[in-house]
From TrEMBL:
UniProt-recorded name of the protein: beta-N-acetylhexosaminidase
Gene Ontology MF: a single term: beta-N-acetylhexosaminidase activity
EC number(s) stated in the UniProt entry for this protein: 3.2.1.52
Similarity annotation: Belongs to the glycosyl hydrolase 20 family.
Signal sequence bounds: 1-21
Domain of life: Bacteria
Reaction catalysis annotation: Hydrolysis of terminal non-reducing N-acetyl-D-hexosamine residues in N-acetyl-beta-D-hexosaminides
Uppermost EC category: hydrolase
Taxonomic placement: Bacteria, Pseudomonadati, Bacteroidota, Bacteroidia, Bacteroidales
């Protein structure tokens, strides 16, 4: 066969285009959550504007809109199923929330037995589309059969501590739907702000939605400065100046609430409003003080004072609020809160005491239970069912109510609730509180977690309704910060909620899929957390020359650095290969997303250091270190000096003392005896503060009140003994470990045989 040069070149460029497009299209393996069964075949289906779409049920009209909006093209409704290119069909007999997607060159068929199954199929289509816009709107030919393991795949958002606009909430709902979440738990009221319009009580939002800056706001402002992070800035579009005072906040009108509820419904998401009571109610109490116990308003030891459940008028106030709330939220379940109630006022209040007498209630706990049961009965009369935080498990509710299990230290609550026939939503703070710092191990921690606590019978297990992540926003003032705290770890929640545990056995592949999903989030302008940069320590030591080296498991990130003490910007040097240094240098660097936004600031100092000589200690040293244990109050290691010594003893390990739960400090003293000359790497993990000194010089500074945080440092040591002093304090049940890190980066506890004292 003879072929012209032009057609030869054309053939090459077409085949290059096809292979490039197919490379971009090989997204079916990256879908999160992973489908139950997926069979790919050759060929593509290409969406085009004006394509015909058939639905066999008018309730699928919002799904038509959803698909068309996701594709950003028009799809024309057809009344002819056989000739339509796209068919969305409601059929009988499929699993709840599941779908079947069948795609060939000419036709796309999506079937389900409920609307949420159709939406789940659309989310799969969205993830099958190529990430690169220029690759068009083609998806591979596939047969997918898919259904969720858990029926409750939830996300909670606290809009009281900081307010999120309707648009911001809608963006979150859109992302939830992309990852097949189907329940939005909207924490609408709390001590710090009331966010939902209640027409009968206008002051709730006229005044209760606004505040002067509080301590949490001030902490955010400080973090903005100290962390060099604009995501902590209080949003100025949510502030106004009234009579010279800046006030901050916002609320949703009832129409806006309904808009959000409809928007969520189109995306297969039920919205569960939470009006937290009888505690966490200060924003309302400040506007309507009669609902509190007389003269007893404000903060107790730990929590704000609750409403007065002794007064009938307070109960009527609550019920009136719920009557309006029921009109805005069609879903059967609503959330009463019921957590963290400071009951001390009820003991002092004549109305509460009277109620206890008339109802035969012996304790304030029984009074809370009475209130919660009253509300449950009221909800049921109104066709609604109660969800409460797990504290309400003590309140003698019926099996129609549900608990959100958040107190990870109290698994008993799950046992009790499920034994009483109550459905349970799993959201323990240990794994699923997304206000807690998102550490590098968090994805794996969630992926590996057992959703079902141990020791439940099969009937109890069947009452575990699903999984939810909770976003409390005390220190999350902006949408950017919220996205940062939520992504990518919500993908792990999506995976454990959708997939049966037996399918979760390949974390490394999951992690890779997450990295690919982050490219999709780039296109959606999501401010996700970039995986940790690795390969360096906070303090790096060299004898002749050192090498600044940085890795990231996400290859597409840009790392930019400076060596002159300034913060790196998008103009700073781009890291491509290791940088050699021959003198003391401090590197500042951060990772940038493709849209130019950046993640946290890292610093790594490189220090030229001669090997530190060993001490000439002649005495026969004994194993272990001297420890002085103190009764502590303060917020930094220097406060140990003024603390009361409890006892001294010798310990062979550096570790949190057994049987203690906080308000303590320890100072370890003695020697570290290393076996040979060399550069040693240590890391110090502590909650709260700690400082490690070697040879009277600070090596690791990890001071201050904080959750578990690890700092690392290198030091060049001659073989032999070096003076060691380690100070540590803890406010509430902490963590302390000194690690040794080998050249491969593997960590082990500092060998106890290296620890000596006189
Ligand atoms: C909660 O974290 N107080 C439910
Ligand atoms: Zn009272």
């Amino acid at each position: 066969m003879k072929i012209s040069l032009q057609s030869f070149l054309l053939a090459i460029s077409v085949s290059a285009l096809i292979s490039c497009a197919q490379k971009n299209l090989s997204t079916e393996k990256d879908i999160i959550p992973s489908p139950v069964e997926i069979i790919k075949s050759d060929g593509l289906f290409t969406f085009k504007s004006g394509m015909s779409l058939y639905i066999n049920d008018k309730n699928l009209a919002p799904a038509h809109t959803l698909l068309q909006n996701s594709l950003e093209i028009d799809l024309v409704e057809s009344h002819e199923e056989l000739s339509a290119s796209i068919v969305l069909r409601m059929i009988e007999g499929m699993k709840e929330g599941g779908y079947h997607l069948s795609v060939n060159n000419d036709r796309l068929l999506l079937e389900a037995s409920d609307y949420s199954g159709i939406v789940a199929g659309i989310s799969t289509i969205r993830q099958l589309l190529p990430i690169e816009a220029e690759s068009g709107l083609s998806i591979p030919n596939v047969e997918i059969t898919d259904y969720p393991h858990y029926q409750w795949r939830g996300m909670h958002l606290d809009v009281s501590r900081h307010f999120y606009s309707k648009k911001e909430v809608m963006k979150l709902l859109d992302l939830m739907s992309l990852y097949k979440f189907n329940k939005f738990h909207w924490h609408l009221t709390d001590d710090q702000g009331w966010r939902i319009e209640i027409k009968k009580y206008p002051l709730l939002t006229e005044k209760g939605a606004w505040r002067k800056y509080n301590d949490q706001d001030r902490t955010c402002m400080q973090l903005e400065k100290s962390m060099h992070n604009p995501d902590y800035a209080i949003p100025t579009d949510k502030t106004s100046v009234i009579e010279g005072d800046t006030i901050y906040g916002g609320f949703y009108t009832q129409d806006e609430i309904k808009e959000v509820v409809n928007y969520a419904a189109e995306r297969g998401i039920d919205v569960i409003p939470e009006i937290d009571m009888p505690g966490h109610f200060l924003a309302a109490i400040q506007q309507y003080p009669d609902i509190a116990c007389d003269g007893l308003i404000g903060w107790g030891q730990v929590f704000s004072s609750p409403i007065c459940v002794g007064k009938d008028s307070t109960l009527e106030f609550c019920k009136n609020i719920w009557r309006e709330v029921f009109q805005m939220f069609p879903y059967e379940y609503v959330h009463l809160g019921g957590d963290e109630v400071d009951k001390t006022n009820w003991n002092k209040c004549k109305d509460c005491q009277k109620r206890m007498k008339s109802e035969g209630l012996a304790t304030p706990e029984a009074l809370q239970a009475w209130f919660v049961r009253e509300m449950e009965a009221f909800f049921l009369q109104n066709g609604k069912r109660l969800v409460g935080w797990d504290e309400v498990v003590e309140d003698g509710l019926s099996d129609k109510s549900v608990i959100s299990w958040w107190r990870s230290w109290c698994t008993d609550a799950v046992h009790k609730a499920t034994a009483a026939g109550m459905k349970t939503i799993i959201c323990p703070n240990s794994h699923l509180y997304f206000d807690y710092e998102q550490k590098s191990d968090f994805l794996k921690k969630i992926y590996d977690m057992d959703v079902v606590p141990s020791g439940l019978s099969d009937t109890q297990k069947s009452l575990v309704w699903g999984v939810q992540c909770n976003v409390w926003t005390e220190w999350i003032p902006t949408m950017e910060r919220m996205e940062y705290m939520v992504f990518p770890r919500m993908m792990a929640v999506s995976e454990i909620a959708w997939c049966e545990k037996s399918r979760l056995n390949d974390y490394k592949t999951f992690e890779q899929r997450v990295m690919n999903q982050l490219k999709r989030l780039d296109k959606l302008s999501v401010n996700y957390r970039i995986p940790d940069l690795t390969g360096f320590y906070d303090r790096n030591v060299f004898v002749d020359k050192g090498e600044f080296k940085v890795d990231c498991i996400m290859p597409q990130v840009e790392i930019r650095y400076t060596m002159d003490g300034t913060d790196p910007s998008s103009e700073s040097a781009l890291y491509t290969t290791p940088v050699t240094v021959t003198k003391d240098t401090e590197f500042k660097f951060r990772a940038f997303r493709p849209d130019g936004t950046f993640d946290k600031l890292y610093t790594a100092s490189f220090v030229k250091e001669a090997v530190r000589p060993a001490l000439k200690v002649t005495e026969n040293l004994k194993p272990g270190l001297n420890v002085a244990l103190y009764d502590f109050s303060g917020n930094k290691c220097a406060d140990i000096a003024s603390s009361k010594l409890i006892k001294t003893y010798v310990s062979e390990r550096i570790a949190y003392p057994e049987g203690k739960t906080g308000n303590l400090a320890m100072v370890y003293n003695g020697y570290l005896e290393v076996p040979s000359d060399g550069v040693y790497t240590f890391s110090l993990l502590s909650d709260d503060g700690s400082i490690l000194k070697l040879d009277d010089q600070v090596l690791i500074e990890n001071d201050g009140l904080h959750s578990p945080a690890e700092r690392s440092a290198q030091v060049a040591l001659a073989a032999g003994k070096h003076k060691l002093e380690l100070s540590y304090f803890d406010y509430f049940g902490g963590v302390l470990t000194l690690y040794l890190i080998n050249e491969e980066g593997e960590k082990t506890e500092c060998p106890s045989e290296w620890l000596k004292h006189e």
